[in-house]
Fold this sequence. Notes:
Strand content: 15-25%
Low-confidence stretches: 1-8
Largest sheet: 6 strands, antiparallel
Number of strands: 23
Shape: elongated
Structural class: alpha+beta
Number of helices: 17
Mean pLDDT: 81
Amino acid sequence: MPAAINPEKNPTVLVVDDDAEARERLRSAFAEAGYRSLSADASPSALQLLRDDVCDLAVLNFALENGGGAQLCKLLRAQPATSKMPIIALTSDEDPGQRIEALAAGADESLSRSASTAEVVSRANAHLRATQREWALIGSNRELSFLADLGRGLLKALEPEQLVRRVAGATYEGTGAAMCAAFVKLNETREAGCVFDREGSAEDASLLEVDRLRSWLEPASVSSLLTDKNAFFIRDEKHEVEYAAPLKFGGRAKGALIVAFDKREDCDETERRLIDAAAQQAALAAHISSLYQSARDASTSLAAEVERRTAEVEAQRRFIEAIIDNLPLSLYAINRDYRVVAWNRNRELGELGIPRGFALGKNIFNVLTRQRRDLLQIEFARVFETGQIERIEHETSTANGEVKHWLISKIPMWIDPKKPVSHVITVGEDITARVEANRAVARTEKIAAIGRLAAGVVHEINNPLATIAACAEALESRVNDGEFNESPAADDLREYLGLIRSEAFRCKTITNGLLDFSRTRPAAHAPVSLGDIISSAIRLLAHQQRANNIKFQIETASDLPLVSGDEGQLQQAIIALGTNAIDAMPVGGQLRIVSSKNGENVCVEVSDNGAGIPAENVAKIFEPFFTTKEVGKGTGLGLAVCYGILTEHGGSLDVQSTVSVGTTFTISLPAIIPDGEQD
Length: 679
């Protein structure tokens, strides 16, 4: 078929004239009209061009030397590749007989050499359109005949092996291809393939790259023209191009039709359209074959399938019931008529438990007779009306006086999302352990506060006690040396001084005990990780009730070195700073703790976005008993104790604060530098 039939290509014209000026004029005119132009000055060079390229039209000077024009017309008509190509001969006005000779030699039309280039191009366009219509008619008749024969052959192809053989054979003959293959995959276990080789023999799928073909069919595959031999589906070394068309039905690929050609030009638009039409018929036949196979298989195992499906449904029902029954919650559900439709096993247990058989199908108010009907009905009605979850906490007492705490959640459920709430699921959760834990945390906070107070008081008391003991020992030494022997009260003085010294040391023992209790007494230092200490402190801070609306942000450097210190004391310092930060954010905020390496030190920044500290108070915050908190809410010892702990560890504690913006405390401690890293 000429290239002009293909709308994707511009038509090609061959201009043959021994007059270079006339030849160039015609070539330029055709180029302006959108043609691809080839030119030759004699018959041999024109034939050479036609052997290397495909032309749609020839325009030649019939008066070539030695009768070359007539010979060229006859040769073009004699060769199969150019027998249908339109030929326009340019004849001389001085020799009217040339016109008749040109038509007799095979030219489709004869024009005068004096005709304008526009007229020549116009006549060329007319001939190309006529040829195009002729080829389209021939192609349509050919396609209809091919498809009719293929359709008759597929009528009885119910088995997949028959289907692929008939499709591949008919397409092989209808397209004149070098090789042709068909492949269908009806399901995961049933597939078939057939290849017609170069001798026209039907082979099995051994000549197909089946795995590659399966992969190509997985996505939404479309008809493809393949020129890369590494992507070919048919195992053959000679062909240059393959056209693969999927057998699609209902948007799903059931197989493929692959046609191989030895030359690229053999696979033109007509051939591809023919292959696509064959693939559509084969897809319908493959669908019918799959239906036939499914019906045949189903007819032999219908009873077993029904039994299997029934068993699956029953197993699924039991599985869902087991999930509901094994939840550590009491659960039941009611419909809009307030009738119980579900009742799990945990709702049957305990002193308030009710058997499932008694509850199912009954009105919920006739089942839960121990609860006030009016309150219960209001709660259910509110959930049915608003579609919002209701949560209520209440206490119950067992027969032995044990108090239980419960969280009751009433959850709306919709069978149809477009309609009102159809059911309400009630879930009861025993939160006794949680409530007790919260109360224990509160008690722990009180004890910690007492400990912090005790630590501050102990630090203040130990110094005067030491002075009293020292003075008593000095006076006792002077008495023993005889300085007061002349006094009649020397013995009484000695006795009183002994009592003063012993009682002072007893007081010191008591204060040391308080220090042990509050963990503020200096202890032996050891290498510790500030990252681990911060994590432990945050866990304690997060469990405080007043930290519920605080967002914690922890940033720990990956290369953070160890420091030397007492883990308990350092943890106490960070907890004290974190507690102050939480107190500075009564309505919520962000507590940020960042640890990093800064030269030979490890720094920890404890920041909040709370109220901040006024500038006049910044210099006083590390003084013992200085506090800006309300009476009863602070002792003024926390920062003083922190400062003392960090100073004792060879570190420092600094503060930066802006009112209404926040406060940042910076801890700096010497890092432990390994021997290999020292200068």
